[in-house]
Amino acid sequence: MRPRLVATDLDGTLLRRDGTVSARTREVLAMLDRRGVPVVFVTGRPMRWVEELHDDIGGHGLAICSNGAVLYEVAGRSVQRALPVAPATVLTVAHRLRTGLPGSRFALERVHGFARETDYRSRHVEPAGTPTGTLEDLLDGSTVKLLALHEEMAGDAYWRAVRDLVGDLVDVTWSSTWALVEMSAHGVTKASMLADVCAEQGIDAAEVVAFGDMPNDIAMLHWAGTSYAMADAHPAVVAAATHRAPAHDDDGVAAVLTELFDLP
Length: 264
Description:
By secondary structure, the chain is an alpha/beta fold. The chain has two domains: 5-82 and 188-260, HAD superfamily/HAD-like (Rossmann fold); 87-185, 2-Layer Sandwich (Hypothetical Protein, Haloacid Dehalogenase-like Hydrolase, Chain: A, domain 2), CATH 3.30.1240.10. It has eleven helices and 14 strands. Strands 5-4-3-2-1-12-13-14 form an eight-stranded mixed β-sheet. Strands 8-7-6-9-11-10 form a six-stranded mixed β-sheet. α2 (23-34) packs parallel to α11 (252-260). It comes from metagenome. One of its GO terms (molecular function) is phosphatase activity. This is Putative HAD superfamily hydrolase. Pfam families: Hydrolase_3. Keywords: Hydrolase.
């Protein structure tokens, strides 16, 4: 049975190492469009980083952004749904992490923008005019992802420690090569939003094929009936997936889809 819906992560999965979409991948996406097969981009990226790829993915429907907290209609560049973290929860989480893991610094991905504590050091280029200050001053009720950064801990170790301390309050995941942990409202994951999207289209989990490479993909890979970890995926992702795909720099997603759908 061929899948009825394709769900794919972006960074480290659909995109090449340089952040581009290859000509072959664009060709495969176009062929799936012509066959009426929905492709949903399921990413930890905020909307503004998905918009940067509009020329490559803009014609392909929906993106699930911020690890499941935002459903974004790519072609129309519009938010269909947002699931924020309650401000009181953000403050409680920050207090626990400052106490249990001193050196933790925080930033907020909001529905429409980014804000950070004054001493949080971003490793990405920040939007012009990024608000800075205390968490109390920055919270506006639209935080879809709380970011915690530690300059001295390893990524895996920090992720596991944060999960132990605040996993009862928020959903904790990690998709970076450094100690940057991502937190969404409790129960909000890539899988939860994807399940909602599929239910609205009458598509069962068994009819979905999903691709990913990092721990924030694990819930989605567990949920989908067929799942692929990329060749260079995190070991926990490899354990969660039912299959392996070639590396992202080798157009692994396109190669698997070509075989699954018998594409030219």
